[in-house]
């Protein structure tokens, strides 16, 4: 039995892509995004590529993308969560009522602590609801499909009861910043700081992994290939910041902001948005979830359980409690998403979050998460969410009406999964 | 038999699945530095019996004694705390993970900050694989990309790495080539010298005669008998397996 692998000592010529060693799936998703942007740009006189639109698309992606990172863990362990859209609505409505009706009576209207209490409450509420669902799934062994289908109905109904169907608005002014908008950004200077820190970290991580590989005697990309990838990563990050920093704040908002800061407003005073807070939240969530997935025991057990539940149990992993933790995490992320969604709209009506569960699942699946379990990446789900949002916003700006939008999204979802299946078969994964 | 306290004593173990009495009042024991072979036809209850010892199944009745003390083994974690390591017949590997992740599953080496230390685990895996299967090179590929024998090596490495005192091997050589089988035989010899007790399950009676000190034969969930290998012939064992009767007892 000889198992020399070709990879350890292959002298044959490698193509450009092989040299770069980019995951072809990632490349495919980015390719799809670029194609979509070009198509929509072309049909909108490049309005679709304007800083204003890119700002909006990235803000609108945030809520679904945050939930999609949690859905990766759920699907990797061979479960599903159909309740996230309704749960988002329920949490959003309760948190809104907290800000609009209950807290003002206790701490006073406009009190500084309201947004903090609201944020903590939303995340905790999600974690508790999720943990309960996870307990029913893990310990009572009711299938996740059924439990979360029940949750889907229950939360949507419960949402109505919180306020008897009344829309809650306006929300706390500080809380609203978390939804993006003219005020809810890092501003120009901080955005550059954010961009530079992110770019340097990305390059640093790539350098570190190269050093690690070298220490283990793995095949190394040639230095030029590594250089191209680093430049690409840093360029993408800084390019995004640059675009966000060239989206001027409209006049109305400028007057409001200058007035609140005691600065005199003149016609030629122009400020720019910078990176929106929901995007910052999404970046933080993505980084943290990636660390959990790849660097912690919890993450390792999630993938092990998805790959072979019996083996995981025989290795002493408490797969039931693991299920509780995964759904609690999913719930907490739904809480965060609900903060972003409600803050962006500055109001919560009984429709908030409708159909979001399907967008979230589609984002995770388009991003390469296998429904059979065991496989899925966090960054894939985030890009999946971006593709979904690009499609939706793009079709809206091209003037496709809503029913047709749904039809297209439906076809794209099925098509994407089919491509994925063919890809897996080809690569033998 | 030696007079010292047995490493493991399983007394009058019973377990049923639905109506099937998979293990029906079986008692076996194991001493330090001894290899006890379990033989029997397919479905005789061998795997079920040792899965009770490894914490995968909970017995309906019976007692397990380890080092002369009564042991409570309800989960695989409990079994590990008694230094019982198992190579399952199904191997129990997570196919989507690589060899180091499987080897350390449930017992990951952590960095001081509490993150999984993949570098160290990989280095340790290389070390132990060098000893068990020097041809093994696919360290960082998912084990689904490995051959049956390579997967088996990973499962063996996992059981051997953690300083087991009691080792359970359920058909460890079923998928191995001639060379690798010889490596396992050598390994069993070494571990025996270190004072481990080993339960070995195999269908290869000749191999069992060579490797084991005693063999126990099961049929339909019951124990047919336990004999020292030097006291019986291969034919005796075969007739125990097939007829379910102990020729020595009958004689
Ligand atoms: N989890 C289970 N549920 C139901 N029945 C089971 C289960 N595990 C084992 N059995 C039954 O118990 C009996 C003994 O099975 P076991 O796997 O212990 O046999 P074995 O001696 O290991 O056979 P083999 O040589 O084929 O591995 C069989 O009849 C089997 O069908
Ligand atoms: Mg068996």
TrEMBL record, chain A:
Topology in the lipid bilayer: Multi-pass membrane protein
GO cellular component, one term: plasma membrane
Keywords: Cell inner membrane, Cell membrane, Membrane, Sugar transport, Transmembrane, Transmembrane helix, Transport
Keyword Mitochondrion carried by entry: no
Keyword Translocase annotated: no
Transmembrane segments: 26-43, 55-75, 82-103, 109-129, 136-155, 189-208, 228-249, 269-293, 322-341, 361-388, 400-419
InterPro entries from the UniProt entry: ABC_transp_permease (IPR001851)
GO molecular function, one term: transmembrane transporter activity
Compartments where located: Cell membrane
Role, per record: Part of the binding-protein-dependent transport system for D-xylose. Probably responsible for the translocation of the substrate across the membrane.
Protein name: Xylose transport system permease protein XylH
Organism encoding this protein: Cognatiyoonia sediminum
TrEMBL record, chain B:
SUPFAM superfamilies named among the record's database cross-references: P-loop containing nucleoside triphosphate hydrolases (SSF52540)
The keyword Coiled coil appears for this protein: no
UniProt xrefs under PANTHER family: CARBOHYDRATE TRANSPORT ATP-BINDING PROTEIN MG119-RELATED (PTHR43790), GALACTOFURANOSE TRANSPORTER ATP-BINDING PROTEIN YTFR (PTHR43790:SF9)
Protein name: Monosaccharide ABC transporter ATP-binding protein, CUT2 family
Chain ranges of the ABC transporter domain: 8-245
Gene3D superfamilies in the cross-refs: P-loop containing nucleotide triphosphate hydrolases
An annotated Gene Ontology molecular function: ATP binding
């Amino acid at each position: 039995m000889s198992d020399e692998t070709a990879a350890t000592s292959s002298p044959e010529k490698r193509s450009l892509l092989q040299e770069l060693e980019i995951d072809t799936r990632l490349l495919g998703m980015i390719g799809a995004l670029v194609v979509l942007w070009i198509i929509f740009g072309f049909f909108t006189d490049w309005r679709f590529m304007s800083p204003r639109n890119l700002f909006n698309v990235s803000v609108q992606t945030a809520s679904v993308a945050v939930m999609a990172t949690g859905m990766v863990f759920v699907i990797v362990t061979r479960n599903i969560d159909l309740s996230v859209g309704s749960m988002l609505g329920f949490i959003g409505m309760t948190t809104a009522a907290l800000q609009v009706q209950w807290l003002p009576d206790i701490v006073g209207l406009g009190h500084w602590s309201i947004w903090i209490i609201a944020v903590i409450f939303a995340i905790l509420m999600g974690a508790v609801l999720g943990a309960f669902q996870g307990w029913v799934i893990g310990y009572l062994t009711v299938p996740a499909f059924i439990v979360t289908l029940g949750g889907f109905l229950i939360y949507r109904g419960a949402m109505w009861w919180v306020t008897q169907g009344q829309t809650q608005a306006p929300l706390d002014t500080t809380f609203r910043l978390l939804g993006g908008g003219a005020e809810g950004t890092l501003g120009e200077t901080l955005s550059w700081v954010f961009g530079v820190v992110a770019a340097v970290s990305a390059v640093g991580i790539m350098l570190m992994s190269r050093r690690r590989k070298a220490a283990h005697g793995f095949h190394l990309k040639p230095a030029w290939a590594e250089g191209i990838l680093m430049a690409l990563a840093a360029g993408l990050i800084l390019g995004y910041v640059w675009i966000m920093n060239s989206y001027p704040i409209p006049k109305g908002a400028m007057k409001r902001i200058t007035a609140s800061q005691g600065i005199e407003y003149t016609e030629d005073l122009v400020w720019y948005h910078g990176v929106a807070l929901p995007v910052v939240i999404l970046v933080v969530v993505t980084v943290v979830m990636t660390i959990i997935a790849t660097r912690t025991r919890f993450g390792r057990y999630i993938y092990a359980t998805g790959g072979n539940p019996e083996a995981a149990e025989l290795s002493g992993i408490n797969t039931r409690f693991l299920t509780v933790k995964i759904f609690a995490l999913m719930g907490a992320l739904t809480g965060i998403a609900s903060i972003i969604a409600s803050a962006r709209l500055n109001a919560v009506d009984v429709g908030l979050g409708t159909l979001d569960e399907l967008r979230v699942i589609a984002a995770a699946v388009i991003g390469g998460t296998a429904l059979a379990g065991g496989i899925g990446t966090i960054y894939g789900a985030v890009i999946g969410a971006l593709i979904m949002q690009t499609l939706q916003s793009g079709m809206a700006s091209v003037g496709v009406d809503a029913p047709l939008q749904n039809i297209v999204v439906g076809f794209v979802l099925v098509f994407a999964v089919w491509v994925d299946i063919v890809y897996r078969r080809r690569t033998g994964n | 038999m030696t007079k010292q306290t047995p490493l493991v004593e399983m007394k009058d173990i019973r377990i049923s699945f639905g109506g099937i009495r998979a293990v029906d009042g079986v008692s076996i024991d194991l001493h330090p530095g001894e290899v006890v072979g379990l033989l029997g036809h397919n479905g005789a209850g061998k795997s079920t019996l040792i899965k009770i010892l490894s914490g995968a199944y909970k017995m309906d009745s019976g007692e397990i004694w380890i080092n002369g003390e009564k042991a409570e083994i309800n989960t695989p974690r409990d079994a590990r705390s008694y230094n019982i390591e198992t190579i399952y017949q199904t191997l129990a590997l997570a196919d989507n993970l690589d060899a180091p992740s499987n080897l350390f599953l449930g017992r990951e080496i952590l960095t001081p900050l509490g993150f999984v230390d993949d570098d160290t685990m990989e280095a340790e895996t290389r070390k132990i694989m060098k000893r068990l299967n020097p041809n093994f090179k696919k360290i960082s590929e998912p084990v689904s990309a490995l051959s049956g024998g390579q997967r088996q090596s990973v499962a063996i490495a996992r059981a051997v790495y953690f300083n087991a005192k009691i080792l359970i091997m359920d058909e460890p050589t079923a998928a191995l080539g001639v060379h690798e089988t010889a490596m396992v035989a050598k390994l069993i010899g070494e571990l025996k010298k270190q004072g481990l007790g080993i339960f070995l399950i195999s269908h290869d009676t000749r191999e069992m005669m060579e490797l084991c000190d005693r063999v126990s034969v099961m049929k339909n969930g019951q124990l047919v008998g336990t004999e020292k290998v030097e006291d019986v012939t291969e034919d005796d064992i075969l007739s125990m397996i097939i007829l379910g009767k102990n020729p020595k007892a009958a004689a």
